[in-house]
Amino acid sequence: MRQATAVSPTVCTWAALTIATLLLCQSLAAQSAATGSVAGQAALSVPLTLDAAVKRGLEYNLATMGVMSAVGQARARQEIARSSLLPDISGEVSVTEQRINLAAMGVQFEVPGVTVPETVGPFNVLDLRARFTQPLVNIGSRSSYRAAQEAVRARELSLDDARDVIVFSVGTAYLDVLGAQARAGAARAQVDTANAIEQRAVQQRDAGLATPVDVNRAQVQTLTARQRLTTTQADVAKRKITLAQLIGMPVTDRYELASSTVPFTAAPALTIEETLRQAAERPDVKAAESEVRAAEFNFAAAREGRLPTVILSGDAGTNRASERSPHGTFAVAGLVRVPLWTGGRTEGQILETTTALTQRRVDLNDLKSRIEADVRRAFVDLAAAATQVDVAQSRLTLNRETLGLTRQRFDVGVSDNVSVVQSQESLAAAEFDYINSVLAHNLAKLSLARAIGRLANDLAQYLNLP
After folding, report:
1. 141 φ, ψ to 5°?
2. pTM (2 decimals)?
3. pLDDT tens digit string along 5-33?
4. Where residue 143 falls among pLDDT bands split at 50, 70, 90?
5. Strand order in the sheet with 119-137
6. Looking at domain 9-86+156-305+348-462, what is its CATH homologous superfamily?
7. Contact at 8 Å (CB) between 152 and 74?
8. DSSP 3-state assignment of 326?
9. Distance between CA atoms of 243 and 253, rounded to whole angstroms?
């Protein structure tokens, strides 16, 4: 049995709201990266589970579609880069009607007794031919192709990371709705309690055991509770709209969640060292490493632009002139191209790729640093939220007991209802405090899973929701 401990309501409320607010800010930042979705199915006819929300988010959220488009573009660039290493084969058919001016071409000769015309033709030439070009040695193109391969790998890994971001965004939005619903439920219970206290105050006034001031005070408390209920219900509607927008549902609050409360479950047992080792394998880290390798290959390709290239080319076909019989012809040629001066293009490409490589390396180091900071912050938030849940539970128990005792004193006419109203407000704050603490704990678990980079696969380990 947990022993209740007296704590300051102001400190508890401030701590819970601070932790929850910070984590909600993180979740909103993630949601901003995954805002928007394509139109999905019609409104749900069954309560929405977390698993169903995540699946819809992965299917309809624009973040995934944007990265998939980038993957397609990277694969297209890879095919283009590979084409420079493969044979270029084409076929052509030409039909030529021609008259040649021999004199204009400088052909002048005389044959005794024969009149040599100045022009030849007209004659018709039909040519059927296949041409090919095959690079035999092109080191720069090979490096460009390897850079394109790494770029594709980076985009594919970014897709895995985008899925993780969407799961985090949908999960936090789902928890936000649950938290708002829990606060609305607590506010509804507070209205019922305020109505009961108001009715009791009226009864005691009629019996001469209470004053009109006590009735007015109870009525003010009832109006305050109703106003709080209206605010919390509006908050539920807005958060449900945000969730619907993330997962491709009609942008409305006219649907229900399968869960009705924010559950509390302990976080998985992990150490910071173990978590950092797992986080080093995050898809975005691997993607950034592929980006570095792609930049290295691009830099190599720029330097290799100074090297000679060897090309084999040729053609084979048949042609005939006018009504004569066709004859097969062919040609094969080898070409060695040595760049001597390119007008500064090669030097400019080397400078550009060097700058890009430096930036990719800086980005990778910065990403690793930010991930370590995220992991350590997640552990701090998780420990603080777990402690806050324990304290909030104790405070909630104490305030419920206090309200029961003060109501008993008021019912028997020992005291006025000032202490009842104060106890009621303290209980309302304690209930909200506990809800926010549990919400903060769940958000901290999601932040930890996101920092590790396996939230899309391990969501069930961190949240026990239907």
Report:
1. -65, -35
2. 0.76
3. 333 444 444 444 454 555 555 555 554 55
4. very high
5. 88-101, 119-137, 309-321, 327-337
6. Outer membrane efflux proteins (OEP) (1.20.1600.10)
7. yes
8. coil
9. 9
